[in-house]
Every structure is written in structure tokens, then in C-alpha cells.
Amino acid sequence: MKVAVIGGGWAGLAAAVELTAAGVDTTVFEAGRVPGGRARSITVDGRRLDNGQHILLGAYREILEVMRRIGADPEQLFDRRPLQLVDDAGFRMALPKWPVPLNVAWGLLTAHGVGWREKMATARWMQGVKARGFRLAANTTVAEWLDGAGQTGELRRHLWEPLCLAALNIPAGRASAQVFANVLRDSLGSPRREDTDLLLPRVDLGRLLPEPASNWLAEHGATLRFTTRIDALETAPGHVTVAGERFAAAIIATAPQHAGKLLPEMTANYDYEPIATVYLQFGPRFRLPFPLFKQTGKYGQWAVDRGDGLIGCVLSGHGDWEALTDEELAATLQAELPASGPATWQRVIREKRATFSCQPGIPRPACVTSHPRVLLAGDYTWADYPATLEGAVRSGRRAARLLIANRDNSPT
Ligand SMILES: Cc1cc2nc3c(=O)[nH]c(=O)nc-3n(C[C@H](O)[C@H](O)[C@H](O)COP(=O)(O)OP(=O)(O)OC[C@H]3O[C@@H](n4cnc5c(N)ncnc54)[C@H](O)[C@@H]3O)c2cc1C
């Protein structure tokens, strides 16, 4: 069986690895020059950087499985730490390396900057949410959910709202409560302690998965065609034609705005949220109090310590920051960091359509389409999750597994 995978982001690569491992003759068509899509490495002023700072969780299990399969060792490539949330306003919540749910309970009850009564009320509320299987009654926003639960104090400001923005890339006032609850279910609410960990990459994004996956694919006989944008698919009852070549099936693993051009029935018309990453280079000895540091200034959201004095500040979702020039943004964020001197180098990278806007009730297309030989993958098709690397990888593997399961019925 020959399969075309259109898109070499994390979804497409995960699909291609799954197919190739099952002996399927796979070709990946990628419009860009490098693999990784919205999570790739770029070179700026001779430095290898990420196109945007990414944060991963221990709950991202399928990414870890794919990494192990392609020989990218997660133990080496991630700095795995128990979850800790530290901000510049005195809030600190650190989970100990204890079994669940003791770790979360202890972290909550010993959090700095929150009153005892609020902690107890939150612990009771979390118990209730867990008991109901993290299923919410209706299509509500995170803000409505928290309001209804009386979560209106310090934990909302220092924990829930920042977590929502980090995970869903959209402020609580517009974010889907159910999708946020799904993320909590699989992280803080998981029965596995490791799922609550933070995974801080020790290397750039390209070296985590896209490059080892591309190398593994090439070594195992798959074909990778970079700088090859596919403008149309020709579907016939027995095959799909991509770039003049016949395939038994195709997986469209692009972002939704590109999938719509290849498959007219894919009409999901999303809004998108931007992300800016502001890289600031300080002296090599500059360190943040914790590698993932919450900023509470006017614009700053998260600052990530990349080592050797390089800090990546993240601005997620639409906001006033978009009106600032790169210079203004860098200067403002620099002033909000506890650095003693000015940055010696800076770069702002803006991704205007970083993620689909994860609002309540938005349509999430299925993997299967009306054409039995054309499947969809990509973060937006993994309905349980917001736009995440894990959702992308799971969606790619799901599409590949469906094709593998149907392989015996394919004549080509
Ligand atoms: C700045 C930033 C920060 C983020 N932070 C996080 C984070 O902290 N944690 C997290 O989990 N997620 C984060 N995300 C989201 C995450 O990056 C995405 O969910 C994930 O990368 C999506 O992968 P994908 O394969 O579904 O899509 P994409 O990465 O968009 O891949 C699609 C690929 O298809 C290619 N393509 C498109 N059209 C065609 C065509 N016609 N022919 C051939 N190729 C085509 C594109 O070039 C692209 O390489 C962030 C995203 C951004 C941009």
C-alpha cells in the first residue's frame, strides 16, 4: 500500500512513522524547507531557536512513544520536573514527587500567596470535578465555569487563568471550559504522577522530534519531499492522485485553513489566536527563579529560561500587546524581568495563526471524510484537546492506524 501524507508537522510526521513502521510505502509532502510545521527550529543571527517557545507535559504520552520509536530519548532530551508554578507576585505552588493525589493536594495546601479558606474550597471543588469525570454540563467558557464554582480569588488569578492561557492559548473569558477540563483531567487529575510533570526541552524543537523523525523515515524507506506544496487532490474510487502520483490513500495533515483548500467539505471556519515569543539574551549567569516563570506585568505572561542567559517570553492569544512594535515589546518585557542589566540581543517572533481559537462549541472535524481514501489529521481534529503537540501526534497516529487496519481491503 502506498500512502501520501500531506504536511510534515508533528501530526504528519507521527502518521508517517506509524505507517512506515507497519511496512506501508509512505511519502510525505511538506510545503516548507524543514519539518515540524508550527513547532520547528529556525536559525536567526546564526542561533538555533524555536519558531515559538513550547511547553510540554508528562501527560503528552504519545509524543514520548513516538520519540522512543525514532531513537530520540526523552530522558536525555527533556528536563523532567514536578510541576511548579512560580510568579513574580509571590505565588508559588510546587508539587512534590509523591503519588497522586497526594502530590496535588500537598501542592495546593502549601501554595504561597493564598489563604487557607480558599485552598480548602478549591480542594473540595477539584474533588467534585474529578468525581464527575471532568464532564461539564454545557458549552461554557472557562470564566463562566470558574464564576459558577466560586473560583474568584487568588488561585483563579495565579493558577487557573494562567494555566488556561498556557494550555488553550486563549484567555479564560473566551476559552472552552470543557477542553480546559480535559487538559486538567489528563494532567493534574491523572492517576499517574508522571503526567503532572513539566517537560522542559533541553534542545531546540527540531531536535526533539521533527529531525529525528525525518531521519528515521528516510532510513526506513519513506520518501520526504520538502518545498512541495500540494495544491489539489484528485480522488477516484480506487486511488488518490497527489502531485501526479497514484496512492492508495492520503492523509491531509495540515493546519485547518490549508486543509480546506484540499478538501472542500472541510468547511470548519476557525478564528485563530497569535503567539509571540520574545527572545532576550542576558549575561550567561542570569537565571530565572524557576525555568518556567509566570510574569504578572501588563504584557508579560510566561518567561522560559533556555539556559546561558537566554530567556524566551511568551505572549499568547489576542491582546493589547499585538499593537506594540517588536522594539516596544522587547523593552517592556525586559523591564518586567528580574534581570540586572539590559539584554545584549533580542528577537521577536510572531506567529499570527499559531492555534485555532479554542472557544466553546467550535466544530472539530472527524478523521474520516466522505472519501474513504482521504483522512484528516492535525491538532484541530483531536477533539479532546486544544491545539497541542500531543493532539497533533495522536491525530496523526489515529489516521495511520485506520489505514493500516483497512490495508487488506486496498487493491493498490
Ligand atoms: C508559537 C507557538 C507556540 C505553541 N506552544 C505550544 C505549547 O507550548 N504546547 C503545545 O502542545 N502546543 C503549542 N503550540 C501548538 C502546536 O505547535 C501545534 O498544535 C502543532 O504544532 C500542530 O501540528 P500539526 O502537525 O497539526 O500542524 P502544523 O504544524 O501546522 O503542520 C502542518 C504542516 O503542513 C504543511 N502544509 C500546509 N499546507 C500544505 C500543502 N498544501 N502541501 C504540503 N504541505 C503543507 C505546513 O507547512 C506544515 O509544516 C504552539 C504553536 C505555536 C505556533
UniProtKB/TrEMBL annotation:
Q: Which residues cross the membrane?
A: none
List the Pfam families hit by this protein, alphabetically.
Amino_oxidase
Domain (Amine oxidase): residue spans on this chain: 11-403
Q: Which InterPro entries match?
A: Amino_oxidase, FAD/NAD-bd_sf, SQase_HpnE, Zeta_carotene_desat/Oxidored
What the entry lists under Gene3D superfamilies is as follows: FAD/NAD(P)-binding domain
The terms under GO molecular function for this entry are: oxidoreductase activity
Entry protein name: FAD-dependent oxidoreductase
